[in-house]
Amino acid sequence: MRSWFFTLLCATLFISELVHAKLTLTQFQSPPKLVVVIVIDQFRADYLTRFKDKFIKPKTKGEIGGFQFLMSEGAYYPFAEYDVLQSMTCPGHAMISTGSYPVMMGIPLNDWYDRKTKKMRYCAEDDEFGISPRALKTTTVGDELKNAGYKSKVIGIALKDRSAVMLAGHRADLALWMDYKTFTWRTSDYYTKNLPPWVLGLNKKLQADATTEKTWSATGPGNGLSDTNSTGFQKKFKPNTKLGLSLNYGVQVSFDAATEALKSENLGHGPATDILALSLSTHDMLGHLFGPNAREVEELTIYEDQQIAKFLKTLKKHMGSSFKDVVVVLTADHGVAPSTDYAQKSKLSSGKLDYLDLYKKIYSHLNNKFGTSSKGEWIAASHSFQFYINQVVLDEKKLKKADVEKEFQIALQDLPGVFAVATASDIQNGQYPPGFLAEQLKKQYIPGISGDVIIIPRPFFMEKDENFATHMTGFSYDRMVPLVLFGKNIQPAVHPEQVHIVDLAPTLSFLLGVLPPATSSGRVLKEIF
Fold it and tell me: Which of 468, 469, 415, 424 minimizes the C-alpha distance to 445?
């Protein structure tokens, strides 16, 4: 009996070791020649499961495939997490490239109030160059390649400047984004004063496209899971418009740029590993217009699948008809909530918090408590449910900020749709909202940048603005996205383990044999080897 048990134990341990195989020294010392990172903006975790039946089947009729190919041939984490209080584009992309939470890398929001200049500040704003990554207070994987002395090329591309810049990092050869005034690809002098010839060629094509109206259409019922346009739709648009780039055309031109960068810069064929990072901003733009349950989002996801398949086919040919020297990453910067219309129709408690109503409630309460001010308003600025108290009014009335913050809390905490109200003073004193919200706040709150008062809405509540649907919470629909790693030395499998987006950068650093970004806090995903 003992002999049988010992044999079974040894076999189990052996199988376990095979499942969690390690790299050999030869494998470790042979990094990929090219890393391609594809980020789909506002791509919720369930998009890869909801629409799977309409994706290209891999390895059929000469097709490599798109999403299904990457999921079947790569290490697929269906529910990777951001684990921050407010999920949005700039911090999301920064977390992907740095492996750091906002509290360490310096980017908590897309925009915040600068208390020194008394103006709102954009995350990629630069007083010298207009747009740059200088607000990012750490390094990226690409930066660490350069810091190690490798002659790598690092390029970031997106319609949104903040997405391209945060993926590319400080030492990138180029970050490329769309100029919505001229509808041409551009960069800033931080990277280069002159656009490469291949970018000028892309811009000529954009100008030629602008003369012809285009149509995006879908017919039939779709897969039956979308809530609107069950019989399809037809949308006519001019390419050189924000609407045009919010439809499938935006995905097309983004992949056109990535393909041209791949070929013209001869990425993957240099003396060291190159990095090409592409973010598909269109998905976010369309998602805000229609919401995650719309037929338009279903069809855009299917179109993205087709474009990824096309790009992978080009990539394989470019690398010599093989993926043996490539690593491809697919992920997203955040998810999205269902629209309030959809949530209410689904019998969920949902609604929109109107800033005008919030201001009235706050001012009425503070004026009753402290009296009105002759020096200004109580609130200097507000954005993304973050409120900045006017220091001039505090000085006039000789009030402590902590006392005013407490009254803010009292005024707001019982409003419908408000789950909790966090204040700077509470955070400083170690008092946090309940449950996982506490850890999320700790990872995102930055003294001097974050607001004095932060509203945490209840699930399915959002701010009232021009968006039909949006994202700005740490709830599952906003924080959970897919993560897929495919290529050299990576074993195919679906992983149920909890994984965080900050784990991606140190994993790529391990594969490349360089130090993780300076403030990286994630782990190496050893189970994928």
Answer: 424
β-bridge pairing 75-81 and 493-494: parallel
55 C-beta neighbours (distance < 10 Å), count = 21
The DSSP annotation for 295-337 comes to HHHHHHHHHHHHHHHHHHHHHHHHTTS--TTEEEEEEES---P
CB 467, CB 42: distance < 8 Å: no
Instruction: Count how many residues are written for the chain.
Output: 529
More confident residue, 4 or 181: 181
Cβ atoms within 10 Å, residue 107? 30
Name the maximum alpha-carbon separation found in the chain. 88
Q: Is the Cβ–Cβ distance between 491 and 473 less than 8 Å?
A: no
| Segment (H or E) for 483 | strand 480-487
Tokens 């009030």 label which residue?
399
Give 179's DSSP letter: E
CB crowding 331-370: b at 16 or more within 10 Å, else e: bbbbbbbbbbebbeeeeeebbbbebeebeeebbebbeeeb
pLDDT digits (tens, 9 = 90+) for 224-279: 999 877 788 999 999 999 999 999 999 999 999 999 999 999 999 999 999 999 99
What stretches of 127-209 show up as alpha helix (H) in DSSP? 141-147, 161-168, 197-209
Coil/strand/helix, residue 280: strand
Please count the other Cβ atoms lying within 10 Å of the Cβ belonging to residue 291: 24
> Chain-centre distance of CA 484, in angstroms?
14
pTM: 0.95
| DSSP for 355-414, written as a single string | HHHHHHHHHHHHHHHH---SS--SEEEEETTEEEE-HHHHHHHT--HHHHHHHHHHHHTT
Q: What is the DSSP string of 403-444?
A: HHHHHHHHHHTTSTTEEEEEEHHHHHTT---STHHHHHHHHH
Compute the half-sphere exposure of residue 147: CA atoms within 13 Å on the CB side of its CA: 17
Which domains does the chain show, CATH number per domain? Answer: 25-339+473-528 (3.40.720.10), 351-463 (3.30.1360.150)
- On the question of pLDDT at 14 being above 50, the answer is no
Which letter does DSSP use for residue 294 in this model? S
pLDDT tens for each residue of 408-430: 999 998 899 999 999 999 999 99
